[in-house]
Write a structure and sequence with these properties.
267 residues, alpha/beta, Rossmann fold
Length: 267
C-alpha cells in the first residue's frame, strides 16, 4: 500500500475553527481514554535522561494530544531536579482545550497562545520537540523541513504515530469513531453545540471518519522515515526509527538528538 498525499478536512484553513476544535477535542478524549501513547513514555524518559532536557515543545498539539497522561508518567532523574515542563503549540491552537489541560495537569503542561509553524519554530522555544499523530499531515519536503529545523536549532525531536498504512489499523478507525460518537456527551467542556454537530448534523463524526482513514493512508512507514532522515543535513546526530508495541496498535516512532548529548542508544 503506497503512501497517499491527500487532504484531511480539519487541517484546512477554510475549515471552521469551532468545528476543528470539536474534532481535536474528540481525538484527545479518545487518546486519553485508551492511553494509546503510554508505551512511548519510556522512550521519552530515556531521551530526557540522556540529554538532561527538562523542557518539551509539543508541535501540532491540537486539543493537547496525550500530554495530560504522559506528563504524569515522566519523572525527574533526581529527586531534587526540576519537574518537566511541556509547552503545547499549534498553527491553529485550540485554546479552550489547552486551558483545561493546563489546569488539570497542575501547570505541568502550558501553552504558547500564538500560531507556531512546525517548520519554523521560534528559537526562543527551547526543548525537546515532539509531534503526536500529526507528522503524516506533511508531504515529504515539508516533513524533512521539520526535521531540519530541529537540527538547525540543535534540538532533539520525537515523532510518534498511531495511524498506520495497514488494513487492520484502517479497520479500527470505524469502531474508534463509533466510540467517540457514543461518548460525545462525556467530552469536556460540555457544549450543546457539540451535540448538535454530532447527532443532528453529524459533521464531526463524518470528519473524524474521513480524516482517520486518510491519516492511515498518509502515514510514513519506518523505511520512509529513514529516507527522510538520510536527506537531513546533520552531523553528530543520533536517530532511532522503529515501531513500539504494547498498546492498542503499534506506534511508529522517529527520535533524533545531538550525539554529544547522548549517553546511550535508545532501544
Amino acid at each position: 500500500m503506497r503512501r497517499v498525499q491527500f487532504i484531511e478536512l480539519h487541517d484546512q484553513a477554510w475549515f471552521p475553527s469551532f468545528l476543528r476544535n470539536y474534532v481535536t477535542d474528540a481525538l484527545q478524549f479518545g487518546f486519553n481514554l485508551f492511553k494509546v501513547y503510554a508505551p512511548v513514555a519510556p522512550l521519552l524518559q530515556r531521551v530526557a535522561d540522556s540529554t538532561g532536557s527538562r523542557s518539551i515543545i509539543d508541535m501540532c498539539s491540537g486539543g493537547g494530544g496525550p500530554w495530560l497522561e504522559l506528563s504524569r508518567r515522566l519523572k525527574s532523574r533526581k529527586g531534587d531536579a526540576p519537574a518537566f515542563q511541556v509547552w503545547l503549540t499549534d498553527k491553529y491552537p485550540n485554546l479552550g482545550a489547552i486551558h483545561n489541560i493546563r489546569a488539570a495537569s497542575e501547570n505541568r503542561v502550558s501553552f504558547c497562545p500564538g500560531s507556531v509553524d512546525a517548520m519554523a519554530v521560534p528559537l526562543e522555544l527551547k526543548g525537546f520537540r515532539t509531534m503526536f499523530t500529526s507528522f503524516h499531515h506533511f508531504p515529504p519536503e515539508e516533513a524533512r523541513a521539520i526535521l531540519q529545523n530541529a537540527v538547525d536549532a540543535g534540538e532533539g525531536i520525537g515523532i510518534f504515530e498511531i495511524p498506520r498504512r495497514a488494513p487492520s489499523t484502517i479497520g479500527l478507525t470505524f469502531p474508534f469513531v463509533l466510540m467517540l460518537f457514543v461518548c460525545t456527551p462525556w467530552i469536556r467542556p460540555f457544549r450543546w453545540s457539540r451535540l448538535l454537530w454530532t447527532y443532528l448534523v453529524p459533521i464531526i463524526p463524518l470528519v473524524l471518519l474521513f480524516d482517520g482513514v486518510v491519516s492511515c493512508l498518509r502515514t510514513y512507514r519506518p523505511q520512509e522515515l529513514r529516507a527522510l532522515v538520510s536527506r537531513v543535513v546533520a552531523s553528530e546526530y543520533q536517530w532511532e526509527i522503529g515501531e513500539r508495541s504494547g498498546g492498542v496498535v503499534p506506534i511508529t516512532y522517529l527520535i533524533g538528538y545531538p550525539r554529544a548529548s547522548s549517553g546511550e542508544l535508545i532501544k
